[in-house]
Write a structure and sequence with these properties.
The protein is α/β, with parallel strands linked by helices and 300 residues long. The chain is 29% helix and 26% strand. The protein starts with 18 loop residues before the first strand and ends in a 7-residue tail after the last strand.
Amino acid sequence: MVDIVTPYLRCPVCRQPLAAGAAGTARALRCPRGHSFDLARQGYVNLVAGRVAHAGDTAQMVADRDAFLSAGHYDFVSGALAAAAADVVATVDGDPTAPGDRPAGPLVVDAGAGTGRHLAAVLDAVPGAVGLALDVSKPAVRRAARAHPRAAAALADSWGTLPVADGAAAVLLNVFAPRNGAEFRRVLRPDGALLVVTPADDHLAELVDRLDLLRVDPAKADRVAGSLADHFELAERSTHRRTLPLDRAQVRTLVGMGPSAWHTDGRGLDARIAGLAEPVEVTASVVLGRYRPRGRAARA
């Protein structure tokens, strides 16, 4: 499905446009200067140029995330993103930068897309849109490549230069993922929007002390806005919260898919979870920030 977004992609080495071509017997994307990028049999394209400092989420973390999200526990987050994205797309003009080879529908980019479930919900809410899932984790993009018929996936490092054309995206999603303000601003259309989801200070509050998990900084939302301030201005912020009744296995999956998985001893965690009384009432609480590119004139 990479062909649906190929006109929006750029070579990560020289920034030239990419097009389908053959490299021996393997399918690949190539730029006019001869740089070639293989299309994996799982359906994604590898657009990483050089080494990256972090390989992203492990296969087990991605499997846990897929299981937890597929059970619908975070559908309220997907729904909030879908509603916000649909509102953005309803207000954007026709693509002023699009040559004749670009798709007619708006582009939604998810930077740090994980399994692509949130992107899929957005595409369901915006029938004419096409989506591009970017992630540095191979296990993640393998799943994201199958997330939606109008979505493609690329292996890419969000901390580096994104392999996306200037002003290509109408909507850019960033859910519990690294934020690269300069690159987000470059690839976003002037009338587009950046939608950022971060944990609220009471996110998973019932588990933090009992399971020795990482604690959310109470000033997280303000710090995020500050980190983006050179390139974006905050247009709107909302909090979305649900109480999730979970069994112990679901709690283990929830912890395993998040950042605490990198810092928690597995055997000690299992022992602490075994002491929880079921069902475990867990608060899932997130902040959704809608940002517009700095310097853009606000609509009346």
